Amino acid sequence: MYLKGPSPQHHDGSGLRVAIVHARWNETIIEPLVAGAKEKLLAAGVKESNIVVQSCPGSWELPIAVQRAFFLSLISASQIQSNTTGAPSATDLLAASTSDLTSLTNSSSGPFDAVIAVGVLIKGETMHFEYIADAAVHGLMRVQLDTGIPVILGILTVLNEEQAKARAGVDGKGHNHGEDWGSAAVEMGVKRQEWG
Ligand code: DLZ
Prior knowledge:
- The protein is of the alpha/beta class and 196 residues long.
- Helix content is 45%, strand content 15%.
- Ligand DLZ is lined by residues 23, 25-26, 57-61, 119-122, 125-126, 132.
């Protein structure tokens, strides 16, 4: 039998923290994708309290939103000096460098073991579909390699709404790709912990 996706493996996700960061464009497709990802995380043993869902306006914003989601989750007042007492301000966070981010995310105490970035780009609805898709996927790869935290690519690039629905398993048709992204996050999160 020809298998389109990766052959299934079981990984224990009970020790993982995973973020799902999704765009809000095309929300009727986004919702089932996020639900599918979450379902697979829970099925692998990831605790509900260790799944954090955040959003940003569109796919273009996903790389910065994913990067800052890591960052905010990792930072404590002692790790990045604040100008004031208590938690670091937004200015402190924005001023933090990539090397701060890298050293923080390489520590075993980093709270997210993987992040799933979810967006839906429909060609018929955007003149600059290719620009947004290209920039978003390159940005996500950069975040992943700069931080050492696996970023699962959950961006659907489709020609029309019908294709989008089929790839989100809407109306019982097609296959919900969000499920694959949830499984990939568990596998890569476990491997990230093994790699140290
Ligand atoms: C502007 C735009 C368009 C036309 N289409 C989409 C889309 O299909 N999917 C998506 O996630 N985002 C879209 N956007 C919004 C951009 O990603 C971005 O949010 C805005 O250009 C503001 O920076």
